[in-house]
Target: NUDIX hydrolase
Amino acid sequence: MEIYRGKRLTIEKKVFPLPNGRTKEKIVVHPGGAVAILPIEGDDCYLIRQYRFAVDDYIYEVPAGTIDEGEEPHETAYRELIEETGMKAETFVPKGWIYPSPGYTDERIWLYQAEGLSPCSDYGMDDDEVIEVVRVPGRDLQTMIADGRIVDAKTICLICRCLG
Model:
């Protein structure tokens, strides 16, 4: 049974058959797919420092965004990188995908490493985005994860896939 339908997500209450033969009623959030991109230039990477209203704080993240209907993940990666950093990439290297929170959502995030960066203003930021682009030496990223400066799960996963 559909509980909510919005522009970007649907929430559903559903009875699921479990592998042990039992059934369980659960709520599932269907936000659609997304992408995350780690832009790399030489020994440095670009992160964004973005205000996130749900946690009422600024956090370090990789550029990311929701896949629009009819769009392929690599097309979204191209667009989102420009929107959030003002840079385009010559090459996007696929790094697989992740389920960020499979306990309640079927969201899948496709991961990309972006290379061959150059300035681009083809797309602008969304009006609800408060973002600062930050250049970080790649060697500092593991320390930022370990000391809690990077706490965003998709960012940690992508750094591990690209630099781990």
In short: Residues 78 and 88 are 7 Å apart (CA to CA). The domain at 34-92+117-163 is CATH 3.90.79.10 (Nucleoside Triphosphate Pyrophosphohydrolase). The radius of gyration is 17 Å.
